[in-house]
Amino acid sequence: MPFSKLKTLLLRLQEFAEGRYDWVIFDTPPGIHSDTLAIVSSSQIPIVITTPEPTAIADAYGLVKVMNSGEGLKEFFLIVNKVSNEYEGKKVYESIRVVCEKYTTAEPKYAGSIRYYPNLIKRIINQNPFDNNLIRELSQILGRLSLVQNVSKGSFWERLLAKLRR
Predict the structure, then answer these.
(1) Strand ranges (E), the chain
(2) Is the dihedral of CA 46, 52, 56, 61 positive or negative?
(3) Is 82 helix (H, G, I), strand (E, B) or coil?
(4) What whole-number distance in Å separates Cα of residue 158 and Cα of residue 128?
(5) What angle do CA 57, 149, 85 make, to 5 degrees?
(6) Residues 69, 33: contact at Cβ < 8 Å?
(7) Is the alpha carbon torsion for 1, 39, 130, 87 positive or negative?
(8) Which terminus in the chain has less CB density within 10 A, N or C?
(9) In this predicted model, what pLDDT tens digit does every residue of 5-54 receive, in sequence order?
(10) CATH code for the part of the protein at 45-149
């Protein structure tokens, strides 16, 4: 997509979202893509979501390492999706934290876990993906994140446009 069209799209999204929503969440593809790097490094609260699979953990660490060395990102939050219990989520977080501590200056913080819901795909198809347990888990995570007061220079939208222009 040409930068001019992307800029128009982002400005329209900004116009729509500001003043209406407390949170704007971008779901990026896994891995280290330039758009993902721009969005995460522009965010006031950078969040990396992973799952317990070894390849997903490696991707999450790779993203953090690149963000840390290339963008100077030091603090970020980790959410572990598709876990069987909270212990599994904390175990995945701890493995990433230890590697980050050893090989980077990044300081991951545990935001929480989301259990695996086998019927979620069916619920999405039926346009009703949320149940009470999932809503409770997401609310707990967002509650932890709302305590963060990360003040950045310029707005998210300005930072994002500048990084995408590069």
Answers:
(1) 47-50, 75-83, 107-115
(2) positive
(3) strand
(4) 34
(5) 35
(6) no
(7) positive
(8) C
(9) 777 877 888 888 888 877 777 778 777 888 788 878 778 888 899 999 99
(10) 3.40.50.300
Contacts of 65 (CB under 8 A, 6+ apart): 100, 103, 104, 106
How distant, in Å, are the alpha carbons of 45, 66, 93, 118, 140 from that of 88?
Answer: 24, 25, 9, 17, 17
Question: What are the φ/ψ torsions at residue 111 (nearest 5 degrees)?
Answer: -95, -25
The CA distance from 85 to 115, in Å, is 6
Q: How many CB atoms lie within 10 A of CB 34?
A: 10
Q: Where are the domains of the chain?
A: 45-149
Taking each continuous run of H as one helix and of E as one strand, the counts in the chain are: 7, 3
pTM above 0.90, yes or no: no
d(CA 162, CA 166): 7
Rounded CA separation 32/17 (Å): 26
* Bridge partner list, 78: 48, 110
